[in-house]
Amino acid sequence: MATDLSIIELVLKASLIVKVVMGLLVLASMYSWTVILYKRSVLKRARKDLLAFEKRFWSGADLGELYKKISTQRDRLTGMEAIFEAGFREFIHLRKQTGLDAMSIVEGAQRAMRVALNREYENLESHLSFLATVGSTSPYVGLFGTVWGIMNSFQHLGTSSTASIGDVAPGIAEALVATAFGLFAAIPAVIAYNRFANDLERVMGRYDNFVEEFSTVLQRQAKA
Asked: I need a surface site. Which of 88, 116, 170, 205 has the fewest CB within 10 A?
């Protein structure tokens, strides 16, 4: 009688260790897809918001008025708005102090913007390390399940006096399914991580350029 080698049957008949391995890989894959969808939304919104703020900032609007409007939502600010608010707030604070030259005022504002920029990086970069971990370790976890399953199959082959390839084929097949599960979890995670890392680098590059450009604007105002 032919042996049922369907994926479902192979999973159901797998040994406990192989089932645990496949279960862990399924959970890792599910969570990585949750992270993928979340980070895709976050980075897309970050790109959209920075383009909108750049257009607003360079439209010639009065910086004081722009700051007043933005500062009313300080607790909810993200991205370039948060960097602008932090820098201009520190600029106003330092400008009120006596004995500070223009360069000291600008440097203080720049430090405040760098702190805000690092905070934005931490927010945008969060969970990317999980995708990197899943992408790099899942194949090895699946391989562990494969090795365990094949080892069990050969143990069965050694203890059976009438063993044939048909007797060990299901065990080897179920073992190889563990590797497939590992690749299933790893491939999307690796692709997503590389894509998001590239998107994050571009966004942070725009933020960094804004800090430098805004510092130049503040330097002119400080000397005025």
From this structure: 205
